[in-house]
Amino acid sequence: MILAAAILFTAFVLDLLLGDPPFLFHPVRLIGATISAFEKLLLRLRWSGSGGGILLVTMTIGLAIGVYLTLRHFIGGLHPFLTTVLDLYLAYSCLALKDLCKHAEPIAETLTRSNLTQARTELQKIVGRDTSNLNPEGVARGAVESVAENFVDGVLSPIFWYTLIAVFSHVFGCPAPAAAGIVGMLGFKAISTLDSMVGYRSDHYLLFGRPAARLDDLANFLPARLSLIILSIGAVLSGEKAWAGWKISRRDRLKHLSPNAGHSESFVAGALGIKLGGPTVYQKNTVDKPWLGDGDEEVGPDHIRRCCRLIYRSSWVALLLFSASLLSMSFFF
How many domains does the chain have? Predict the structure, then answer.
């Protein structure tokens, strides 16, 4: 378990220092390519309903984990240390903290310089909504919402599933809890990638993408709720309004269309004293999202920077808590 904790901690630091690895064999990119190939095959076979969606999910997750375990077994035969290198690389690749805020920084910068056109372009890179007619506050609000929501999916959930599966494997006598943790992390990233590619409510994906969307809701269910505790600690460390964030999140967290996204978004809205959500224009329609929070401040570039600071410190809190959980298992089990 000491090795499992060390891999998680080192992977987190590598992500902070280097950001998302730009390599061709990035596991999430490979998973995305696999999903595209499987989707084309299933649609060609006219498996476009829920059955095809279940098959897509099963094949994608099974292949991702199967390839990892096979590769780990092979390189372990060359030298045991190589398995640690592989585990560290995969853990590092599955975290996205630096890139999460890295993409938000240019939005804050261009808004500060009153370059609304460029700010809209930068926001379009990280959201699915139509940004062409957003005013400066709408752009800033979109950036804050993206950072707040993706804290769970990009940072907290991968750490959560790595730790949970590693702990369970250790309790039940698995000789390689770090490898079990990577299985949990890869499984989650496969589910998350499936949801981002096919989990839409459009006519085309309504049935085919539903299994991926529901599984993603399930995978993020506990981390989203745990995020309220972690964000509360992070807010204290960031000088934000922890109690207001907690109060608003308890009131507004279930207003969101997603069963999970509203938790972190509503907490951030309360902690920063702003309102998030509201009517959102996408490419083909307008979604009348509920408002989260009741602050009267105009959302601006400073709120983007404060949100990133809150997410950075909350991520450290999550890392230390989960690393401590892994280390404690070495002493009690």
Answer: 1
CA 221 from centre of chain: 12
What's the confidence (pLDDT) of residue 127?
85
Higher-pLDDT residue of 93 and 295 is 93
Q: Of 184, 190, 181, nearest to 6 (Cα)?
A: 181
**Cα 278 to Cα 181: distance, rounded to the nearest angstrom:** 38
Q: What are phi and psi of 253, to 5 degrees?
A: -60, -25
Q: What is the pLDDT of residues 50-84, one digit of tens each?
A: 899 999 999 999 999 999 999 999 998 888 899 99
Q: What does the pLDDT look like over 84-105, one tens digit per residue?
A: 999 999 999 999 999 999 999 9
Asked if pLDDT for residue 4 goes beyond 60, the answer is yes
Token pair, residue 119, equals: 């700010």
Domain of 299, in residue numbers: 2-332
Closest C-alpha to 263, from 146, 127, 152: 152
pTM (two decimals): 0.94
Class of residue 174 by CB neighbours under 10 A (exposed 0-12, middle 13-18, buried 19+):
middle
Q: Among all chains, which residue has been given the structure tokens 């993206």?
A: 146
Do 19 and 100 contact (CB within 8 A), yes or no? Answer: no
**201 contacts 178 by C-beta, under 8 angstroms:** no
Task: Write down the H helix ranges in the chain.
Answer: 2-18, 27-44, 50-78, 80-93, 97-102, 105-112, 116-124, 136-151, 157-171, 177-198, 210-238, 242-252, 261-272, 301-332
CB atoms within 10 A of CB 63: 16
Residue 298 CA: distances (Å) to CA of 15, 201, 308: 32, 31, 17
- Taking only the tens place, the pLDDT of each residue in 261-286 is 899 999 999 999 999 987 776 655 66
CA distance 323 to 5: 5
Residues 6+ apart with CB under 8 A from 121: 131
